[in-house]
Specification:
Helix content: 40-55%
Order of helices and strands: EHEEHHHEHEHHEHEEHEHEHEHEHEHHH
Strand order of the largest sheet: 3-2-1-4-5-6-7
CATH class of the largest domain: Alpha Beta
Number of helices: 16
Distance between the termini: 21 Å
Oligomer: single chain
CATH architecture of the largest domain: 3-Layer(aba) Sandwich
Structural class: alpha/beta
Number of strands: 13
CATH topology of the largest domain: Rossmann fold
Largest sheet: 7 strands, parallel
Radius of gyration: 21 Å
Length: 378
């Protein structure tokens, strides 16, 4: 392990992003501890990563307005301060400026790093003056601030005068690469789908409607719809699939372990991510699809325009527009050469700009710089 510094991540241990950062940094020899508020699957973490959680009833944690959860963070502060002190960590890194960033800011620990995640800077401050000032306060206590996209860094700069470092959430190219054989579909099937949480902001209802349009237009083709993930809209999506008579050609997988995601990317012919909000700040699943040489269709929201080059690595369509989405699907179905070209160009772009190893290198370099600043003289 790195004998200079160790890191405590204040983060949701259930999140695939937390899992990926923790495991990646741990593999690089960083001593990692995680403090959070949620259940998690210990099998997803490497042995040696220490995880401590404070658990609260789900009816509090998952209130849609999120305000109850902020109170949970506030009232759990004394316990978290004790755990942070007990951890002996030299660097505290909070993931999300509005929640764990609040715990970090109020903990009094320094150095404190904050990574913004999306909703915390796009949606949370718009709830009112108090929430905007809370974000400003949390960011004011950070010694470094990170974003995964330039667009989100620009949004974050509305609430701080500090520099916001951009470190993309890279893709593990040893896992995400094209494979020739399918496990769930036949070679003649044309599989269109997405791998996202089943929440309103991800535009999955629009995907279902667009797929219905294509299905009606090309009844002779073996078109399949694959929706991977779980979330609050699962029941509504299943109901819509039934109403549109798409049950025989649609699969909803429910939860899939992050360690299994690449298998589903390689079942697809076309990957769709038509988010409806700018808080979709980066689009990890889009880059995973591109790394598997899949053509992607994305909406013109948030950071998605940063990770996709229109008509080069994918197609960008207006958000909330199933008709335009269906047109893009039709274009890729009918033009196999274009579809292959977009997929191959997408992987090249990921190789050049979004290699996970480079993201880890940049983050560790920032950890080393902050350690030198705070501890080298002592």
């Amino acid at each position: 392990m790195n004998n200079k510094f160790n890191i405590t991540l204040l983060s949701d241990p259930y999140s695939a992003h937390t899992v990926k950062w923790a495991n990646g940094l741990f593999r690089k020899g960083i001593d990692i501890k995680i403090l959070g508020i949620s259940d998690y699957n210990p099998e997803e973490y490497l042995r040696g990563i220490k995880i401590t959680t404070i658990k609260f009833p789900d009816f509090i944690k998952y209130r849609s307005d999120g305000n109850y959860l902020k109170l949970v963070y506030f009232f759990s502060l004394p316990h978290f301060k004790h755990l942070i002190k007990e951890s002996g960590s030299t660097i505290l890194h909070a993931h999300s400026a509005s929640s764990y960033g609040l715990l970090g800011a109020l903990s009094g620990h320094s150095p404190l790093l904050i990574s913004v995640w999306g909703n915390d800077v796009f949606n949370f401050p718009s709830k009112g003056t108090f929430f905007k000032n809370l974000i400003k306060y949390n960011l004011s206590k950070a010694d470094k601030i990170f974003s995964t996209s330039n667009m989100m860094a620009k949004e974050t700069s509305k609430y701080t005068t500090k520099k916001v470092e951009v470190i993309p959430f890279g893709i593990d190219l040893t896992r995400f690469h094209p494979t020739k054989e399918r496990k769930f579909y036949n070679p003649e099937d044309i599989v269109i789908g997405t791998i996202k949480s089943l929440e309103k902001k991800y535009g999955i209802i629009d995907l279902v409607y667009a797929f219905k349009i294509i299905k009606n237009k090309f009844p002779e083709l073996s078109l399949k719809l694959l929706i991977v993930g779980r979330g609050s809209l699962e029941g509504e999506i299943k109901k819509l699939v039934k109403e549109l008579n798409l049950e025989n050609c649609t699969t909803l997988t429910g939860f899939v372990s992050p360690n299994e995601v690449e298998k589903y990317h390689n079942e697809l012919d076309i990957f769709v991510a038509v988010s409806t909000e700018d808080s979709e700040s980066f689009g990890v699943s889009i880059l995973e699809a591109s790394a598997c040489e899949k053509p992607v269709i994305v909406s013109d929201k948030g950071g998605l325009k940063e990770v996709v080059e229109n008509n080069i690595t994918g197609i960008i369509v207006p958000a909330n527009n199933p008709l335009k989405l269906a047109d893009a699907m039709e274009r890729l179905i009918q033009d196999k050469e274009l579809s292959n070209s977009l997929g191959k160009a997408g992987r090249i772009r990921v190789l050049r700009h979004y290699d996970w190893e480079n993201s880890l290198f940049e983050m560790i370099k920032n950890y080393e710089d902050i350690w030198e600043k705070f501890y080298s003289a002592s």
